[in-house]
Amino acid sequence: MVRAKPDRRRKPIICPTERRQVSLDFEAGSAGMDADPHCTTLVDGAYNGNMPTRTKAAPAPKAKTVRQSVTIPAPLVATVRREAKQRHLTMSRALISLAERGARADLDAKANLKATYKRFIDEREPARKSAAGEDLIRAVFGKGAIAEDSVL
Amino acid sequence: MPKIRFSELPQVLWQHLLERVQERDITLGDLQRLQGWVKSEPVAPDGGWYKDFGSFKLCGSNEYPKTVLTKGMAAFGKRIE
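Output (structure tokens, whole complex):
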């Protein structure tokens, strides 16, 4: 005895947007959903083969971090430990804080040198040029470069 | 050996350095390299010495820097690497 297969094509279809049953008439080649704008739209005629690509904004570039183990030189240990204690940081965080401060100071020193050099070269008025020169000497050799009572 | 002294420089000395910087067209780049070298706390040999930066030279005597020379000028004393 041959059992007849259930006809799946006749299974009721539920429209996902309106939650109501729609019927498809495959024999006729078109569906009862055609009239319903919320349901499946046939694309055979209008589809040109180009699928729209997904345009997702590129994620913002993350600043790259590096996990690094370092040995702290003995003379620096006390400084790092003091920084950690004062600011309630771990030794590692204190080390980073000091390194950031050092790097910033280095950049500031370079910017200061550039500004004072330009001022020294451009200045024509003697008193101002002398002051700019003093600043330039301090920028190159350090804050304590000029003796208070300068006599050789 | 003592470190080269870049602090408490006498007025006549730093004024002379400034005059030579201007007169010999020492550039900002030159001074930036000099600034970096100063931070390395170099040691001073006995007697005369000089440091060749390529585009200029810093000359000194004992612990004091004394003058700057241009690239082509001859320097005396011990060369510091």
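Chain B has two helices and four strands.
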